[in-house]
Amino acid sequence: MSKIKAAITGVHAWVPDYILTNDELATMVDTSDEWITTRTGIKARRILKGEGKGTSHMGAEAVKGLLKKTNTHPDEVDLLICATVTPDMQFPATANIIADKAGIKYAFHFDINAACSGQIYALTTAAMYIQSGMYKKVIMVGADKMSSIADYTDRTTCVIFGDAAGAIMLEPTTEDIGIIDSIHQSDGAGRVHLHQKAGGSVKPASHATVDAREHYIYQEGQAVFRFAVSRMADVSVEMMKKHNIEPEDLAWFVPHQANNRIIEATARRMGIEKKQVMINIQRFGNTTSATIPLCLWEWEDKLMKGDNIILAAFGGGFTWGAIYLKWAYNGKNHR
Ligand code: ACO
């Protein structure tokens, strides 16, 4: 009997309407369009506005769109996994809330927190439930309202992040397509360079933590940059070597969109050309758990059945990894 693989059978994303440009940011903190563009590649990012709207709002919109375009009734969904670092609340899991808003009743749901790598950790986890033969329809959602933890008085972090959600449907196949391999790693020692200081069990929220602005992203940019470049490149090259993928065999490289310089350095190490790399950081910034589904959604029209694709991410933790997959459908037919 052929081995069951997990194939991506649909992808959808949702971004808020509000566009926060570099010029508008320059009215809020001491920065400039020139600095942000040169150092990060970012020109604009989307921001979710509106009282009472959190990560689940965006995640549910992405999932509802995904259900519609894949002709899936909510009752058919077996499992929904949400990758996020900005849950609606500490508990319950945002996956539960997204599923409820999308009308998914006969499934179980949980969150994965691996910062920017959460999206690939969640995709691999979702794939395992399919590959085991346990489930037929699993949804992975990557969603983050980064504007809720970005400090708009700190120019070193607030210029980087944006809000978005993306959702991916996984189903079984016995064809030679789908998710072929995953390599994931973590190093908890990296937490000192990138974390949120308060609001957890070590330092619960208090007047003092709010006054000290400890509920925002704390990042030592240069240290994170160095690790991100080396780890993302190492793991992507390792994946190519492991599967004898020559640069010209790769249809697409889909990197986490953290910084255009990290993306370019990784692509150089892989020996691939810019035209093989999905890059939309200029319009959306770093949307943490949503960057890879957002790219796949934007490029869906161009994707062909059998395309060799490598996804790679690096994030807080530290966490990093890569997934090698063969695309499962001609994207044009799916709009
Ligand atoms: N505008 C103008 N000047 C700025 C800004 C800004 N927005 N931000 C920083 N600067 C200044 C600094 O204050 C510093 O000034 P100084 O020399 O007078 O002290 C100077 O620019 C250089 O600062 P660096 O931190 O060295 O700038 P760098 O080139 O490293 O860029 C950045 C900073 C964009 C954050 C970069 O380090 C980076 O991309 N790091 C990795 C981010 C990442 O991958 N994160 C992981 C994923 S996120 C997650 O998991 C949640």
List keywords for this structure.
binds acetyl coenzyme *A; Peroxisomal Thiolase, Chain A, domain 1; alpha/beta; 24% strand; 4-stranded mixed beta sheet; 5-stranded mixed beta sheet; 335 residues
Structure description:
Helix 3 (55-69) crosses helix 4 (94-101) and helix 8 (221-242) packs parallel to helix 9. The protein starts with a strand and ends in a 9-residue tail after the last strand. The protein has 2 domains: 5-176, Thiolase/Chalcone synthase (Peroxisomal Thiolase, Chain A, domain 1); 179-333, Peroxisomal Thiolase, Chain A, domain 1. The chain has helices spanning 22-25, 33-40, 55-69, 94-101, 118-131, 155-158, 207-211, 221-242, 260-270, 281-284, 291-299, and strands at residues 5-14, 18-21, 44-47, 79-83, 108-112, 138-145, 163-173, 178-186, 194-196, 217-219, 252-255, 308-315, 319-326. It has 335 residues and is an alpha/beta fold. The model has no long low-confidence stretch (mean pLDDT 97). A 5-stranded mixed beta sheet has the order 1-7-6-4-5, with helices on both faces. The protein is 31% helix and 24% strand. Bound molecules: acetyl coenzyme *A (ACO).
Summarize, please.
The chain is an alpha/beta fold and 335 residues long.
Topology at a glance:
Layout lengths: L4 E10 L3 E4 H4 L7 H8 L3 E4 L7 H15 L9 E5 L10 H8 L6 E5 L5 H14 L6 E8 L9 H4 L4 E11 L4 E9 L7 E3 L10 H5 L5 E3 L1 H22 L9 E4 L4 H11 L10 H4 L6 H9 L8 E8 L3 E8 L9
Parallel strand pairs: 4-5, 4-6, 11-12
Antiparallel strand pairs: 1-7, 2-3, 6-7, 8-13, 9-10, 12-13
The structure holds acetyl coenzyme *A (ACO).
